[in-house]
Amino acid sequence: MIRSLLLATTLLCAPAALAEPVAITGGKVVTNTPQGIIENATVVIDNGRVISVGTAAPPAGARVIDAKGKWVTPGLFAAFSRVGLSEIDSEDSAEDTSAPSSKFQASLHAADAFNPDDTAIAVTRIEGVTHAAIVGAPGKGLFAGFGAIIDLSGGLNSLQAREAFMLARLGESGASAAGGSRAASLLWLQTAFDDARAYPKGFSDDGEGDILSRKDAIALKPVIEGKIPLMIEVHQAGDILQVIALQKREPKIRFIILGAAEGWRVADQIAASKIPVIVNPLTNLPDRFEILAATLENAGRLSRAGVTVAIADPGEATHNTRLIQQLAGNAVANGMEWGQAFAAITSVPAGMHGRPDLGVLSPNATADVLIWDGDPLELMSSPDAVFIAGVETPMVSRQTKLRDRYLNLSEPLPQAYER
Question: Got the DSSP string for 333-371?
């Protein structure tokens, strides 16, 4: 019995290593590499990796999946998300995206709050998202702490990177948090950099610098040393230029701009700075002063200017990460080239977050593979199969179970609903 239990445990813990090779044949394959899109191609995956992509016959002994008439693509990578950090936004006990009463900022870790059993994980996965960059929201200061990289398998080992980037805010919300003005927020941020650079010099006996606590100064050090990126949320064109100026003063820091609703106005400057951006292509309603010049054409204009563009929706990042496919489709409808829009939800965010093995279908890439029933950027298309690291995942979520449970009302209702 003990041997049987050990064998069962081994099988559960290492499904990718023990899985049979899989050959997905006959599909329209989007590689996100110089190979481009290959018609009637075969993708072979084994042991969690892509083995080959091309028109060769499937290898002997492989499980063959017929994808004729379908699209085969890399898994989607959410450039910005809070999936797994909040089960119910309106219930404090089930919400871990922000800590407004905490004295800590930069030293917080989204990984410590991540719940792989969150029902939003499966909901997001069956829509094709296989990996995501997750991070909390800033509390009372400018920093939200460290963001993490997760896979959407729902497994207890789905945390891939604990300290992948750090999030901070400027613009309107940063000004409010720093004392009431943009000047205050910029000085606050620069002083925080100085604290981290100087630590432990200048810190009082009780562990306080000019701005940061000892813990936060230590946490910020890898950012100012260029070891992990600093993602800064800004939208207004002038605020974006301030980030570009900040990069010139802090050349070691690797910046990512989040938001950039008015990015098109300074697209050439962003391109020259080589700072990548994460945008929501549907941001076009001027609901606050810092996005008065927002337009549906933002993503396309940035892309044509040579800016590295990823697509996500920071405002709906907890439960609607699954909609990044629709955001990319809308970007295409408003002027972005199809290949660049698809890359903006796959290979671009993967590379931005240090995972060039994801978001592409090429030999030795991680085998995150999707089989779609149509063009993945069309609203009515959806995945028929989702592989994460070579393992086919269930196309089931709490919502699909509820749908199936109550689909036929002529059948007996569950006991709880009987009178």
Answer: HTT--HHHHHHTTTHHHHHHTT-TTSS--STTSB--EEE
